[in-house]
Write a sequence for this structure.
């Protein structure tokens, strides 16, 4: 198996799906000859031509509106929004149109499409190149929301997303776009099933839920906790909607303690939903209150980014809280 | 936009520009009229039903029958239509059954969309008439995208999208026409400039001298047409459709017309409309104007006219009776079509509703 980066994994997934299905088209800003500002679509235009790898005018709303029209017509568009922070002009098309099309037409019209977008902090990108908008989308019925945390999943999940009959928001953790490399199958048939979480580290004392670039932080926090004799379980959700609730409940039932981890702001964050589900369905197994580690409720900062971003020591503090309750 | 630049074949005072008459058979000419009369009959009846509390909402096409029917007649069955609020008649013209149509308005089990949207939000994949939302302008970008799909697939399909004058101020109007112009997409954008976006007059919508001139900036032809002249609308749309089909790219059509009623059943236009202007527009009524022409041509007699109206009324009444006799949508339809397959969370929520009724529990209710 070749050892590749997450960027290459995305690129490979696109190439394989475009080779397998003429209906798959890529469109967005700078995705053509430039290959995308992160190079996720590098070389696609050479292989598939300008008709299927389209440099659009600069309008996110137009890109998603166009992709919806293409999907309605029968194509499988994979639009790229250059940064998740720029997705808001398309929010209406995504939430009012793409997400509701199947429902409002009684299943007559559907939008099988994947909106790819790099998200998250840690690249010194300030307010508008760093945000984590997942909760806005997980709150909208009809959307599937996927967040890979490594190259293996990025490729397998993106291929699964492109084959999905439902519209998918595919959030790519750009901080780990280029590291670390990982063995990823080159097999056309390999996909990672949407809706299944992965246990990244087994443990018996506490559970950390996480996704995207925060998986690595959770792993580091568990290493620190292990030095204190506490064995943590890291549950990488991989798909936020539909949630693998079974995996969540199973892990918490096993450990009895839950720390949720996300880099998006804390209030009304996605992890709050996890916390509510565990409180509703498994409070009897809890040996300590749930702790949420998240970004702060401030606009994403530039200079003080390192303070904003959840880090292993901050997660460890939450682990200490649940372990010593 | 000067008056001279507005395409007109039948003037309000009865003059006919014969050199511009479209090539339509007598049957086709009478067919257009039947659609216009039926549209008006449906509007009259449905507005009355709304006042009686039998349907929740209604937005009429009254005054815009020529713009709607004339454009709707210019596309073929293989072409796609993205409607706005007032183009339900186009779906009927494409052969949609009247009982399903009424089913949508009433929100009953006859409606293939399970009563999920407010009245007037029709859709039918079979008729290539795409589901619309109530959000203004969104369908314009989708029109562009579907036209792009047709171009990528190398189909000779044309995609027509409707909008009101208010929608031309939306983001989607700008990006749809920008994209369509750059990529020469087979799209026809039809703006029904009915002078009002609810209570906001056209003069407050834009400082532009009409809508058609905006096409210049997007690199496509812009055509202003008398929207109350069904033959002019047909001609302008047909030319645009033919151009799009033959690879000539998109067109923006401005059908200058007038919304004779309120924006919807919830709106009272006497609050903001000047009576004299209203009366002047009523003089330009599109149905009367076309009837005068057909009478002159000997295609419509008073008797035939009565017959058409009677047939339309009967069809509408029969469909209303069927829709009102139809049960409400099954409760489980609340949970289907959110995704291709319901998620576990949706199944759980559906089960909650099932447990609320003894009947639901007994039958196992939800087939999810």
């Amino acid at each position: 198996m070749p050892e590749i980066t997450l960027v290459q994994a995305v690129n490979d997934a696109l190439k394989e799906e475009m080779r397998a299905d003429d209906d798959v088209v890529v469109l967005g800003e700078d995705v053509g000859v430039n290959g995308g500002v992160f190079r996720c679509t590098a070389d696609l235009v050479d292989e598939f031509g300008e008709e299927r790898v389209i440099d659009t005018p600069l309008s996110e709303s137009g890109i998603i509106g166009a992709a919806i029209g293409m999907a309605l017509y029968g194509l499988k568009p994979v639009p790229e929004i250059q940064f998740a922070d720029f997705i808001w002009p398309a929010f209406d098309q995504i939430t009012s149109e793409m997400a509701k099309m199947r429902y409002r037409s009684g299943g007559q019209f559907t939008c099988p499409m994947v909106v790819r977008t790099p998200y998250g902090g840690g690249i010194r990108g300030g307010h508008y190149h760093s945000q984590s908008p997942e909760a806005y989308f997980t709150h909208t019925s009809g959307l599937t929301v996927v967040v890979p945390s490594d190259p293996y999943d990025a490729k397998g999940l993106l291929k699964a997303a492109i084959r999905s009959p439902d519209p998918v928001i595919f959030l790519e953790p750009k901080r780990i776009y280029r590291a670390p490399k990982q063995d990823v199958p080159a097999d056309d048939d390999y996909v990672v099933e949407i809706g299944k979480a992965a246990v990244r580290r087994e443990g018996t004392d506490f559970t950390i839920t996480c996704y995207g670039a925060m998986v690595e932080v959770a792993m580091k926090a568990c290493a620190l906790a292990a030095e204190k004799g506490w064995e943590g379980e890291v549950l990488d959700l991989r798909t936020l909607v539909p949630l693998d609730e079974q995996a969540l409940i199973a892990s918490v039932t096993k450990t009895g303690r839950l720390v949720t981890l996300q880099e998006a702001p804390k209030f009304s964050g996605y992890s709050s939903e996890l916390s509510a589900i565990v409180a509703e369905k498994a409070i009897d197994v809890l040996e300590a209150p749930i702790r949420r580690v998240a970004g702060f409720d401030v606009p994403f900062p530039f200079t003080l980014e390192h303070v904003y971003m959840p880090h292993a020591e901050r997660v460890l503090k939450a682990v200490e809280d649940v372990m010593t309750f | 936009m000067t008056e001279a630049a507005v395409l007109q074949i039948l003037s309000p005072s009865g003059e006919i520009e014969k050199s511009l008459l479209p090539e339509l058979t007598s049957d086709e000419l009478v067919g257009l009229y039947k659609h216009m009369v039926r549209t008006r009959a449906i509007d009259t009846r449905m507005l009355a039903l709304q006042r009686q509390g039998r349907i929740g909402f209604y937005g009429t096409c009254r005054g815009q029958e020529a713009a709607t029917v004339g454009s709707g007649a210019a596309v073929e069955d293989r072409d796609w239509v993205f409607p706005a609020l007032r183009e339900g008649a186009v779906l009927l013209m494409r052969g949609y059954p009247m009982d399903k149509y009424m089913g949508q308005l009433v929100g009953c089990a006859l409606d293939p969309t399970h009563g999920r949207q407010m009245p007037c939000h029709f859709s039918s994949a079979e008729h290539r008439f795409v589901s619309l939302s109530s959000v203004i302008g969104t369908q314009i970008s989708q029109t562009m995208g579907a036209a792009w799909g047709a171009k990528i697939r190398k189909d000779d399909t044309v995609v027509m999208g409707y909008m009101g004058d208010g929608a031309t101020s939306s983001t989607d109007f700008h990006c749809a026409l920008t994209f369509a112009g750059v990529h020469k997409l087979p799209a026809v954008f039809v703006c029904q400039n009915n002078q009002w976006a609810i209570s906001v007059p056209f003069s407050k919508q834009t400082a532009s001298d009409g809508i058609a001139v905006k096409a210049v900036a997007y690199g496509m032809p812009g055509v202003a047409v008398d929207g109350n002249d069904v033959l002019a609308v047909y001609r302008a749309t047909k030319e645009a459709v033919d151009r799009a089909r033959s690879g000539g790219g998109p067109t923006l059509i401005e059908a200058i017309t007038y919304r004779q009623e309120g924006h919807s059943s919830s709106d009272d236009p006497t609050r903001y409309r000047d009576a004299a202007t209203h009366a002047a527009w009523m003089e330009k009524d599109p149905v009367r104007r076309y009837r005068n022409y057909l009478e002159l041509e000997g295609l419509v007699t008073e008797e035939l006219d009565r017959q058409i109206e009677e047939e339309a009324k009967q069809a509408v009444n029969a469909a209303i009776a069927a829709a009102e006799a139809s049960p409400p949508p099954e409760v489980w339809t609340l949970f289907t079509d959110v995704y291709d397959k319901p998620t576990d969370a949706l199944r759980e929520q559906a089960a909650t509703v099932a447990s609320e009724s003894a009947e639901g529990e007994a039958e196992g209710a939800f087939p999810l």
